């Protein structure tokens, strides 16, 4: 009899873990960087590689760092939302082009529009690692003091802009 009980118990425990896992939201992975200084970097600008960008240039401003790539399907879904948000001038948006080929990224922006103040090229993905990027797209809200205040994992949606990003940006602008 015990020959059948232990596999049944193991199966029930496994189903319990699976059921619990299905209640979790993968877009709500906690970030250890929230309320911590945004990691510093200096990267070449995508459009002008002879020029660089560093987050220190944004001190005193609330801004978004949007991690994207031309090979990312979810980035294509998100892009109209990011572009529409950029047109409102509510917040400057800097693109972090992640593990991409420069020419392909530039062509992608030419085809789909470019709402970024600028994009930087993280071809090796080192800055993405420093920011704890799980995958693209991801978006970070960075406050005037250079602290990461929010991390959005996955494609930004209209409802995320309306219900989360814009209220937080308005609060941080005060």
Automatic annotation (TrEMBL):
GO terms for molecular function: disulfide oxidoreductase activity. InterPro entries: Periplasmic_diS_OxRdtase_DsbE (IPR004799), Redoxin (IPR013740), Thioredoxin-like_sf (IPR036249), Thioredoxin_domain (IPR013766), Thioredoxin_ResA/DsbE_sf (IPR050553). It is found in: Cell envelope. It comes from the Bacteria. Residues 32-174 form the Thioredoxin domain. PROSITE patterns: THIOREDOXIN_2. It holds the Pfam family Redoxin. GO terms for cellular component: outer membrane-bounded periplasmic space. GO terms for biological process: cytochrome complex assembly. Keywords: Cytochrome c-type biogenesis, Disulfide bond, Redox-active center. NCBIfam families: dsbE. Belongs to the thioredoxin family. DsbE subfamily. This is DsbE family thiol:disulfide interchange protein.
């Amino acid at each position: 009899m015990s020959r059948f009980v232990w596999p049944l118990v193991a199966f029930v425990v496994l189903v319990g873990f699976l059921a619990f896992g299905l209640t979790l939201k993968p877009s709500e992975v906690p970030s250890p960087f929230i309320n911590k200084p945004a990691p510093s970097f200096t990267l070449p600008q995508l459009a002008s590689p002879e020029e660089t960008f560093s987050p220190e240039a944004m001190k005193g401003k609330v801004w978004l760092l949007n991690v994207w790539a031309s090979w990312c399907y979810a980035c294509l879904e998100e892009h109209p939302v990011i572009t529409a948000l950029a047109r409102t001038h509510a917040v400057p948006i800097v693109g972090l082009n992640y593990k991409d080929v420069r020419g392909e990224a530039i062509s992608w922006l030419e085809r789909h529009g470019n709402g970024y103040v600028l994009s930087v090229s993280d071809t090796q993905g080192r800055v993405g690692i420093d920011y704890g990027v799980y995958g693209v797209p991801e978006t970070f809200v960075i406050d005037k003091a250079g602290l990461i205040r929010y991390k959005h994992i996955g494609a930004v949606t209209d409802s995320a802009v309306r219900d989360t990003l814009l209220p937080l940006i308005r609060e941080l602008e005060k």
